[in-house]
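wait is this the right file?? whatever heres the structure
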């Protein structure tokens, strides 16, 4: 009876999901506008089903996860990097680390193509691509003493492909951290409320770490309650910082913020994970998930209608937000939230060194990615409930006449500016339009109608918090990679507890991304980051496929092989087109310095694509060797 009831529940969830997808895609009632509730229902049902069935299939058949096997966190426990961590605390860290700017900004920018392409990519990409990507790499790293993606590539593919992957990964991390750090700087500059709240999360996290591991070991419930209360208090108190005697201490310039973030990144990379990094990320997850759930509640209450067309005229290119065509540029614009190579660095960086049991891999690797997919879906809704003309007026610098000529006249942008207390027109980049969309939805909740300005500023702070938790973890992961590579030149760098090596490599990483932010030489960083990030995902899928083949489970290689082929095709196409765009800009540049900058950007993209092709060629050669029985996998190579 119980089994029949369970089957009935899953059948009803499947039907609800299918009906929702049919309505969103226009199969049912194609002439009517779509309510945002259908997008939430479709995502919720689809993600729950894939987690229950597909993730279970991967865990049991493809990866053969065994809770009885000791993890590196126990075997190599050192209290600094390797430390067994409660499943939900680690889930919080992992989710906070992977969910940076991507799931918020990417869908916001890609909305120019219409709501439907982004909806389908987030829905399918997150469940059948991104979650598989994260879970497979996490399992591979856990079975290999918590080694990095670069080290796994070198061990499983070969020295040539491994070396190319190592250089590609380090380049991507530095560029990614610079771009993410710049987003934080822009969001918090001269914003004392947001800066205060973000700053206060640091001592709160230190208190939580000491409480959980020294004062009351293992009391996750108690420390969660303490952290939640203190976090809410920080948000509320932050509202009163502007205009107070404390304002000068938290109203920082961009250069002051660069220094502050660099100092934090260095400290977070050097201190033991249990002391600051993990509890702060866990704490940040409260605000992230809580805000997203509140946003979903707002959608349920006001049931907004999607204003953006399913498909816009810009799918063929020429859009005011993203200049390229739907393919391939949407797939590199929406990275985190669907598929992101940066996740592989976390799944083979901090997380595998803290995971207490292989039984936690499914919830952390697959589950956190689905959670991020839901975040991306909410960001897409926030973008598309705006009047299209207002969306383009905020996300481009085109005058209102030009937008009207394109068929998207501005509607309420002046009214929205008055409601949030600042001019939001001509603020490209996605952050402002996301804040406006979120504030519009949240202020629709009963009793919050007059809090539009509050929610707008809260949303900006929320975005900064999302991003900063990726910066601290990314810095630590880059430090791991530098230590691994540096150990071939100077052996002591490879020692896990050698503090001079830890501090030196951390300082190098922080100095690199802080310099890029300070120099202002990353004006074209986002398209380069999009291409390089997705090239990394293709490499990670290839590494995962290699691991699966060498473990004697080649019949399951399609789980990572199909997404790998799609990502290589997409990103190499995007690389080719982006090189052409940079070359055109270099030819039309007003100054020689500007032309040189665009030429350098084109060369960097070319270098990234070349490295990825080298890795792909080495992987194909390795696969040929195993399929033709020229080489055989040893027990140490297999999962």
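ok assuming it is, sequence goes like this
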């Amino acid at each position: 009876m119980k089994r029949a009831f369970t089957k009935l529940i899953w059948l009803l969830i499947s039907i609800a999901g299918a009906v929702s997808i049919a309505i969103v895609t226009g199969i049912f009632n194609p002439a009517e506008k779509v309510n945002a509730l259908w997008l939430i229902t479709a995502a919720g049902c689809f993600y729950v089903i894939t987690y229950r069935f597909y993730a279970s299939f991967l865990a049991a058949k493809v990866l053969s996860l065994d809770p009885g096997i000791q993890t590196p966190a126990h075997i190599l426990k050192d209290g600094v990097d390797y430390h067994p961590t409660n499943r939900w605390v680690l889930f919080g860290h992992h989710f906070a680390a992977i969910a940076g700017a991507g799931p918020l900004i990417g869908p916001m920018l890609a909305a120019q193509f219409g709501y439907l392409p982004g909806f389908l990519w987030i829905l399918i990409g997150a469940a059948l691509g991104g979650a598989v990507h994260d879970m497979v790499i996490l399992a591979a790293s856990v079975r290999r003493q918590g080694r990095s993606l670069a080290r796994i590539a070198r061990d499983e593919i070969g020295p040539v492909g491994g070396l190319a992957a190592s250089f590609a990964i380090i380049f991507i991390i530095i560029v990614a951290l610079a771009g993410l750090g710049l987003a934080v700087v822009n969001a918090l500059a001269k914003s004392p409320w947001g800066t205060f709240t973000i700053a206060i999360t640091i001592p709160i996290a230190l208190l939580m770490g000491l409480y959980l591991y020294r004062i009351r070991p293992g009391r996750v419930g108690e420390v969660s309650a303490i952290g939640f209360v203190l976090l809410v208090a920080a948000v509320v108190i932050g509202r009163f910082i502007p205009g107070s005697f404390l304002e000068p201490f938290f109203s920082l310039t961009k250069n002051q913020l660069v220094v502050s973030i660099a100092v934090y990144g260095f400290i977070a990379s050097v201190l033991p994970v249990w002391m600051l990094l993990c509890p702060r990320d866990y704490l940040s997850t409260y605000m992230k998930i809580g805000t997203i759930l509140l946003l979903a509640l707002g959608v349920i209450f006001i049931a907004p209608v999607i204003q953006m067309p399913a498909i816009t005229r810009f799918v063929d290119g020429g859009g005011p937000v993203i200049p390229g065509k739907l393919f391939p540029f949407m797939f590199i614009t929406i990275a985190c939230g669907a598929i992101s190579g940066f996740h592989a660095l976390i799944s083979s960086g901090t997380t595998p060194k803290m995971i207490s049991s292989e039984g936690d891999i499914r919830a952390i690797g697959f589950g956190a990615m689905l959670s991020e997919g839901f975040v991306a879906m909410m960001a897409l809704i926030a973008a598309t409930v705006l009047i299209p003309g207002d969306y383009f007026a905020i996300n481009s610098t085109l005058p209102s006449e030009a937008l009207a000529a394109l068929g998207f006249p501005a509607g309420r942008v002046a009214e929205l500016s008055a409601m949030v207390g600042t001019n939001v027109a001509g603020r490209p980049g996605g952050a402002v339009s996301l804040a406006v969309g979120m504030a519009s939805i949240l202020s629709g909740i009963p009793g919050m109608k007059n809090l539009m300005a509050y929610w707008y500023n809260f949303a900006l702070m929320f975005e900064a918090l999302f991003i900063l938790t990726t910066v601290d973890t990314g810095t630590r992961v880059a430090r791991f990679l530098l230590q691994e590579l540096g150990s071939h030149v100077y052996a002591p760098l490879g020692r896990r507890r050698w503090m001079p090596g830890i501090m030196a490599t951390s300082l190098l990483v922080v100095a690199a991304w802080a310099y890029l932010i300070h120099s202002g030489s990353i004006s074209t960083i986002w398209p380069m980051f999009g291409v390089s990030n997705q090239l990394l995902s293709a490499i990670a899928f290839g590494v995962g496929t290699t691991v699966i083949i060498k473990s004697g489970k080649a019949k399951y290689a399609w789980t990572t092989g199909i997404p790998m082929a799609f990502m290589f095709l997409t990103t190499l196409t995007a690389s080719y087109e982006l090189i052409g765009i940079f070359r055109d800009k270099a030819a039309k540049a007003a100054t020689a310095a500007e032309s040189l900058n665009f030429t350098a950007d084109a060369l960097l993209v070319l270098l990234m694509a070349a490295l990825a092709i080298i890795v792909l060629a080495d992987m194909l050669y390795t696969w040929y060797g195993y399929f033709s029985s020229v080489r055989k996998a040893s027990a140490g190579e297999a999962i």
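Residues 635-639 have pLDDT under 50 and may be disordered. so i think its the right one actually
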